[in-house]
Amino acid sequence: MNFLILGLILWIAAHFFKRAMPELRARMGNKGKGLIAVILVLATYLIVSGYRSAEVIPVWTPPFWTIHITDLFMIMAVGLFVLAHSKSRLRAKVRHPMLAGVRVWAGAHLLVNGDLASIVLFGTMFIWATAQGIIVNRTEPDWQPYSKGTMAGDIRLAIISIVVFAAIAGVHYWLGYPVFPG
């Protein structure tokens, strides 16, 4: 669990760095981007390895039916991630689609995982994504919604989201975590 917590601390610190110390970040230029990228790769490694090796300490037992809700939410979470780089008309409606995607992803996983490590991981990521959105909105209050969305962009968004969700589900099965009730 220590690696999980350390990874989450690094993840949060790296993402808040630009907002907490904008002058220092600006002086670092492109080298700063590289440093943050290295820290985020390390954070991700620590989060994944820490989560996978954490002792299972049950806190609550999720009801079986939450699996179905989680699958639906995960399609939405993937759609929000894809939306961030799409040419969909929906992009004009969501200011921070990736952060919204993280919140949906984390909330969905909290529905089906009742162990302590899951609560630490997904709860922390939910709180981080919420705080990050608030901080970005305060530091950059002017937002110009995307205005070039098309119906074709909407269709591509739906197709790509389903394909990516299927790939993620396949990886979960491969790792031994079936996502659909059997």
- How would you sum up the major sheet? none
Q: Which structural class best describes the helix and strand composition? A: mainly alpha
Counted up, domains total 2
Average the pLDDT over all residues and give the rounded result: 94
Number of helices: 6
* Unreliable stretches covering 5 or more consecutive residues: none
The overall strand count is 0
Report the β-strand fraction as a percent range. Answer: under 5%
Principal-axes shape call: globular
Q: Specify Rg, calculated over alpha carbons.
A: 18 Å
Order of helices and strands: HHHHHH
Keywords:
73% helix; mainly alpha; 2 domains; 182 residues
Write up this protein.
The structure is a single chain. By secondary structure, this protein is mostly helical. It has two domains: 1-54; 58-182, no CATH class. The protein is 73% helix and 0% strand. The model has no long low-confidence stretch (mean pLDDT 94).
Protein topology:
Layout: H1 2-20, H2 22-53, H3 66-83, H4 97-112, H5 116-139, H6 151-174
Helix pairs in contact: 1-2, 1-5, 3-4, 3-6, 4-5
Give a brief description.
Helix content is 73%, strand content 0%.
